[in-house]
Amino acid sequence: MRICLLVIAIAFLIGCEKVPIKYQLSTKQQLADTNIKRVAIKLKNEFGLIPCGTAGQMMHQIQMLGLMFDYRQSADIEAGRKLLIAAIQELISAVNADEQLRPYLNNYPFCPKNIEIEIYLQNHDGSRVDGGRLSVITARKGILEYKIAGIDPRAFSQVILTETYEEALARASGHAASPQSATEPEKPIFYLTVSVDK
Questions:
Q1: Residue 151: domain span
Q2: Which of 20, 29, 53, 102 has the lowest tally of Cβ within 10 angstroms?
Q3: Residue 11 burial (10 A CB sphere; 0-12, 13-18, 19+)
């Protein structure tokens, strides 16, 4: 019985032709792809951001589009903030300006909550930054995060600051107070209530 099954399996495998599977992108995916590529190229030319990945959430309508980059320069939080803001604004601008893409958007205008950006900071040669230095900056759902590399190369990066897109814009333009570190606990506010007997 086993020999019979083996002969049938071999005959089946030999007789089957390999037919290449072709996958056709939908119009929505093609339009989104075109915009993402255009923005990635522009950000590479203007800021030295090297595209290394894309993201998207578009099962029914386009809810999110994103880009991932390598950045082979050191940056502090201020420089990282400017990179994130520039990438977010560029992608939002491209998506909102594309009238053909507009009917496929979950919401119009597309806003920072619809954009994901990840930037991996590296040394000039592409190697991992030293522990304690800014290593990853991200923007997801309108929240920007800044992470530093762990001292141990196997350790995860640690978030040192979280801010909203609006806070980042205000800080970048100099209209806001310095951000509070994510590792610094918030100072409690105490209220003193005094009752007076008459």
A1: 25-172
A2: 20
A3: exposed
